[in-house]
């Protein structure tokens, strides 16, 4: 049984990466295996998490590459080198071009900290999403795992999970609750769903 080969793309602390690695250990993810971690920052703590888990990790900086095209070319080189089947964006702060995403139809997953189509698209990332949800006064928010296409947060939805907004929430408190109650649960599940489907398609 050849498992789906997964690359996780990160930019920061890597809590979603950790959720995936933990789910792999516990058997929630059993059709896929994380074989590569790519970070857009050499300082990302996610690289430490990869090292602890024994997963090869590389930092690829857009600045050091000298622009989007060279940055994406280096990402592609590494993805090909490690024979990656599935790409998971887990707090990856770089927007990927249409040329890049088009190469991987329904093979790139992203987790977004709201119930798409609310508070999503260009400019909505990190704490900004939770600030917008609180400013609007919604009583329920959550997280969405979706396929990535050329439109930011525009790909087909795989899983969603709702989270209550509570009295006195700050963007930081809400962000933590959405991570714990939604992102860390549905991201590994979505990774397993897509990995299993890919194995099936390969006739495993």
| Helical residue percent band | 40-55%
Distance from first to last alpha carbon: 6 Å
Reported for the largest beta sheet, the result is: 7 strands, mixed
Number of helices: 7
Radius of gyration (Å): 16 Å
Question: How many runs of DSSP E, i.e. beta strands?
Answer: 7
Mean pLDDT: 95
**Spans where pLDDT lies below 50 across 5 or more residues:** none
Helix-strand makeup class: alpha/beta
In spatial order, strands of the major sheet run 3-2-1-4-5-6-7
Hey, roughly how much beta strand do the residues contain? 15-25%
Silhouette? globular
Description:
This protein is an alpha/beta fold and 204 residues long. The chain has seven helices and seven strands; from the N terminus they run βαβαβααβαβαββα. Helix 5 (98-102) links the parallel strand 4 (86-89) and strand 5. The longest helix is centred in the C-terminal third of the chain and has 31 residues, at 171-201. The radius of gyration is 16 Å and the shape is globular.
Q: Main traits of this protein?
A:
alpha/beta; seven-stranded mixed sheet; 204 residues
Detail the topology: elements first, then pairings.
Blueprint: E1 4-10, H1 15-26, E2 32-39, H2 46-52, E3 57-59, H3 62-65, H4 68-81, E4 86-89, H5 98-102, E5 108-112, H6 127-136, E6 140-147, E7 157-164, H7 171-201
Parallel strand pairs: 1-2, 1-4, 2-3, 4-5
Antiparallel strand pairs: 5-6, 6-7
Helix pairs in contact: 1-7, 6-7
């Amino acid at each position: 049984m050849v498992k789906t080969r997964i690359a996780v793309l990160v930019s920061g602390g890597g809590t979603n990466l950790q959720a995936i690695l933990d789910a792999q250990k516990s058997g929630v993810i059993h059709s896929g295996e994380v074989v590569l971690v790519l970070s857009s920052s050499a300082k990302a703590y996610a690289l430490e998490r990869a090292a602890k888990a024994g997963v090869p990790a590389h930092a690829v900086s857009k600045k050091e590459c000298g622009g989007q095209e060279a940055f994406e070319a280096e990402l592609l080189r590494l993805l090909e080198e490690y024979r990656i089947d599935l790409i998971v964006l887990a707090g990856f702060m770089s927007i990927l071009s249409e040329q890049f995403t088009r190469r991987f139809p329904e093979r790139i997953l992203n987790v977004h900290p709201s119930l798409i189509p609310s508070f999503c698209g260009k400019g909505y990332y990190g704490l900004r999403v939770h600030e917008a949800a609180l400013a609007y006064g919604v009583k329920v928010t959550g997280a969405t795992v979706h396929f990535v296409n050329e439109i930011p947060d525009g790909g087909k939805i795989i899983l969603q999970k709702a989270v209550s907004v509570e009295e006195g929430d700050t963007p930081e408190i809400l962000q933590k609750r959405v991570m714990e109650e939604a992102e860390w649960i549905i991201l590994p599940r979505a990774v397993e769903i897509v990995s299993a489907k890919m194995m099936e398609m390969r006739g495993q």
